[in-house]
Amino acid sequence: MVDYLPKATAPVAFNAIDAILSAIHNDPVWGWLEGYAHLYPNQYVDTATFCSQGPRDAPAIGLGDLLNLAPLGTPEYFESQQKIARKIEGILHDRLFGAMCELPNVPTAGWCPPFQQTITGMSGGVGGEITVPVPSSATQVRISLRSRTVVGGAWGVLVYKRPAGGGAASVIQGYDLSTSAPSGQSISTFAAGGQLECNQSGNNGNVSVFEFEFNDGCAGTPFVPTPQPAPTGFLPRVVPPTAAVADLAPILFAIELKLEELLRVERQVAIDQLPNQSGVDDAVTAEPDVEIDATNWLGAVITVSGVPSSVDVGFGTPQEYTGLGRVNIGTPIGWYPAIPITASPMVIRPMPPETTRVTVSIKPPATATVAPILPTNT
Fold it and tell me: Considering the chain, what percentage of its residues have pLDDT values greater than 90?
């Protein structure tokens, strides 16, 4: 099996998301995926290693694959998001592989696959000219005249070989096209590298087509990703306009989507990793400035009695309080930011990492109790 190799134009290494955005930005087929670029791993990649791993099977995707009908924050929602992310990641990988990698060609019976070049005479009787780069490892070229279109006048083509780094060019082939029909092949040997320069003399409109084959340094066959147009019914995202930097808006929008997704994942992982709770334990009265031992707590239920009339009360059920009090959660080395008491009873869960203590500060004459939520094995 022949490994894929980096294209000649590919960098030695690249940032995956930057490379994806560069490949799909404003593309009529792939551009709709810009908003999903954050679902691909954001990392720097060695191009040779990336290409040697070969392409993946690109999944087909439809509008139904992008829909998540599960309630936000539920395990089903989280599982559906993971399935969507895996499909999008596979599609983006396919496009990125096409941008970076190609399958190398090896000479068949001593020659690389042929390619053709057309030389056309220009206006005013000035001849045409083309330049053909010579692969750095090639030392021979096989040239064939494939066709010619004669407008008139005496004309011909001279093929020069110029060495690598410049210097004087030398003639390696000559063709009198006034009389020559498409011919067989002519083989020339030369020092590796450099370029061929084909100069055509004659009238405007005279056209010749030549075929070239080198004995080494064959051009690779690029990997062609499966086209992925936007699914039918998909509503493209609206890119906010920018006044100065045209490409800033889609980048910021992708970052915003990524942050939203990370926050959803963080909430779900925090819930999934909690052990089973045994329910609410016996409540203790919260005394002013007294710390309550909260070691191993999963959460706490704060219940307030005797709310004074001076506390602002919002409409609706449950009542929402402003200025009633606060809960402080601490570790052995300090305190987390205070949590306002806005309802009663109020559940705080999950507890921050390494929680060992809790204090409740309440506006007199109100009183508060704290009931711990404990794991089943406590």
Answer: 21
- For residue 268, pLDDT over 80 is answered with no
Distance, in Å, from the CA atom of 271 to the CA atom of 73, rounded to the nearest integer, reads 9
Tokens encoding 158: 């001279």
For residue 304, give its domain range. Answer: 277-375
Amino acid identity of residue 182, one-letter, is P
Identify whether residues 197 and 231 lie together within a single domain. no
Residue pLDDT, tens place only, 6-41: 888 889 999 998 999 988 888 888 888 888 888 888
Residue 108 forms part of a structural domain: no
Other Cβ atoms less than 10 A from the Cβ of 46: the count is 12
Q: What is the pTM of this model?
A: 0.45
Q: Does residue 230 fall inside a structural domain?
A: yes
- List, in sequence order, the alpha helices (H) in the chain: 16-24, 47-52, 63-66, 75-100, 248-272
Distance (Å, rounded) from C-alpha 219 to C-alpha 101? 12
103 phi and psi, to 5 degrees? -95, 120
At CA 66, angle to CA 61 and CA 72, rounded to 5? 155
Helix (H) or strand (E) holding 322: strand 321-322
Number of domains in the chain: 3
Place of tokens 């998301």: 17
Among candidates 266, 268, 265, 261, which has minimal Cα distance to 35? 261
Q: Is residue 258 in a domain?
A: yes
**The residue type at 93:** H
**Residue 242 shares a structural domain with residue 300:** no
